[in-house]
């Protein structure tokens, strides 16, 4: 009787790309929602995606590895590490598509974290980033690391492919709360990037650089006042806010609330998020935003927390049904 092949399952959290002030460089992991990816070895060199389940529109995602974020990441891993075997893959989506919550990054990172458990020589964080970014390209057309980096490392990260070590984990004040609200609207990342003006006025560049510097200094000093002063996006948010129903009114209403440090778009939207000075404030803002979206007849999902959230990690899950004692299937 042949021996059952190894398998591993990883949970990869949703993320807030850009974190408002750091377009394509800052990212933040959140608790409460994410994707699960189970990977097992197979004797041939195929990367075979058996199923994608979970959210209502998951069936629209491609099962062809080259066209799937998890599959493309594993193909890049296979090529880069000269692996002479293939992978069977099952994906359980917890992150809605087109939500601005890093769903494409989560599936890619989940696949790499699970597959890494099966490798003799484990990957570095830098390798995990680059392989997962090959999957991110499938969804957004660009290898931007702002969702992938925090999905791998957790917390708030600063990432750039221009650096020798492309991911930096930033301090996260324990008292800093967060809230993310996802309305039942879809915004495709590629479309949201396509509307951006690539010609940024010099004065706006200087202003945004100053704000980002203030925000980062606030994190390092754990100074909520500095974080609040630096939390403003004068370049990207004004170009994308029209994609989110009621955004300008919600932004104004949220920033008037005591204890709010900032409010912005999560990734390319339509999800919105706020940073606050406490868990209690985050819960209050969640109710406010939920009420505002309800007025527009939009259903929402809310996620609230405080402090640093963990990145992708292995989870114990029963193996999917054994097929020919070589691969698992749901």
Approximate strand percentage: 25-35%
CATH topology of the largest domain: Ribosomal Protein S5, domain 2
Helix-strand topology string: EEEHEHHHEEEHHHHHEEHEEEE
Helicity, as a percent range: 25-40%
- The shape is globular
Would you report the number of β strands? Answer: 13
Protein traits:
330 residues, alpha+beta, Ribosomal Protein S5, domain 2, Alpha-Beta Plaits, seven-stranded mixed sheet, four-stranded antiparallel sheet, 34% helix, globular, disordered C terminus
Could you characterize the architecture of this molecule?
- With 330 residues, the protein is of the alpha+beta class.
- The chain has ten helices and 13 strands.
- The chain has two domains: 7-169 and 310-329, Ribosomal Protein S5, domain 2 (2-Layer Sandwich), CATH 3.30.230; 173-306, 2-Layer Sandwich (Alpha-Beta Plaits), CATH 3.30.70.890.
- Strands 1, 2, 3, 4, 5, 6 and 11 form a seven-stranded mixed sheet that branches.
- It is globular and about 60 Å long.
- The two termini are 22 Å apart.
- The model is unreliable at 321-330 (pLDDT under 50).
Summarize the structure.
34% of the residues lie in helices and 25% in strands. The protein has 330 residues and is α+β, with helices and mostly antiparallel strands. 50% of the residues are buried.
